[in-house]
Amino acid sequence: MTYFDSIDEIYQNTPDNPKGQWQNWSQNQKSHPGKVFQPRSTSELMAEIQDSSGALRLVGSGHSFTPLAKTDDTLISLNHMTGLLGHNEEANTARIMAGTPLHQLSELLDGIDQGMLNMGDINHQSLAGAVATGTHGTGAKLPCISGLVNSLTLITPKGKVLECSKTHNKDLFDAARVNLGALGVVTEIELQNRPSYFLKEQIDIQPLDDVLDNIDTLKAQNRHVEFFALAYSDQVILKTLNPTQETPFSPKAPFISDDALLRFFCEVTQRMPKLIPMIHRQLARFIKPSLRVDVSHKVFATPRTVRFNEMEYQVPAEDGPQCLRKILKHLKTNQVAAFFPIEYRYVAADDIWLSPFYKRDSASISIHQYFKQSYTELFQQLEPIFDEFDSRPHWGKSHTKTHKQLARLYPQWRDWKEVQQQLDPDRRLMNEAMERILGEA
């Protein structure tokens, strides 16, 4: 199994997952919900909310690394509320059921000659989950997925249906586009898309210093640019994506896939961490330059079968190179056993109250650790470096920030909290993790 396509794959009785236990993809978060509710319609959802008592939490694909979905009460999954509700051909918009996984959404958009403006390299999150946490791709002029939302429908903890958009219920719209599942259940989302298009992907090995010294030029010349850095290498894996009219083509598949190599080296280095510097320095021997062209969503998404835990912070764009250099220096100087590549991307600013990109173009820096290894010490070593730059954590990825620290990073924090208090005065949508990051009413 790679990613979970439904709650049924998570909440089941297997040797690794005892009956009644929910766990996320990386297996670092587990709980025993008293009930898992999977409505098939808005009316079923409203009836359940109105008739139920106790806490309610929401879950998407289980890809979040934080305990946002943990509950001993009722866990709500929208995995049966999926599909395309309608579209506007002229405006290139689509109305989608919020439980739709991104990989399914991509296929649906193909059928109406539309494509998402941007997407991350993982496409198994539910649309509702991706929007709730500010999930993103890469592109200096492109916002996170929440920034592509034109309107949405939300069911409050009282069972009331609310509609909001850029011109209707504006405060709710600004709050709900990144909502952490703490304002209600988002059931429908209208996305701004573009006509279906092809992307050309180029992957190369480049010197780290050259890439960082010329990153502004790379951003200007490419619609999407990102790279993967290694603690003990002076080279990076540079990836650029650009729209193209070229005929689709793919390179010949390697004898051993990149994913298989990553899994092999993760297994080896967790047992023999002293090999990490040597393997990192041999990067160019294992990763070869490549080109491919395909429909956009097939280029955006990358197969991920190697499980990991992840911490990600959004750094002010101008500080990104300096922050990354400090991280790499710390890892190397302290001989930290960190094999997994560090992912470096750019995301455009938006106006969403709890978006990590609120009114700030950002460099997104992601730290990973193989799921069989402890990640706590590694992440805690690097968080103070992110703090030096007033960085904001990704809501769906590991961090230790509390509401007192987070409130300082978000100018509209109090406004968002007021909306939360109005919609959920009884705090039914809270759990222990939510109390830590959002604080009291």
TrEMBL record:
- Locate the region Disordered: 13-34
The annotated regions of Polar residues compositional bias extend over 13-31
Pfam families, per database record: ALO, FAD_binding_4
Entry's SUPFAM superfamilies? FAD-binding/transporter-associated domain-like
Keyword Kinase recorded:
no
Question: Keywords, A to Z?
Answer: FAD, Flavoprotein, Oxidoreductase
NCBIfam families documented for this protein: bact_FAD_ox
* Protein name, UniProt field: D-arabinono-1,4-lactone oxidase
Phylogenetic classification of the source organism: Bacteria, Pseudomonadati, Pseudomonadota, Gammaproteobacteria, Oceanospirillales
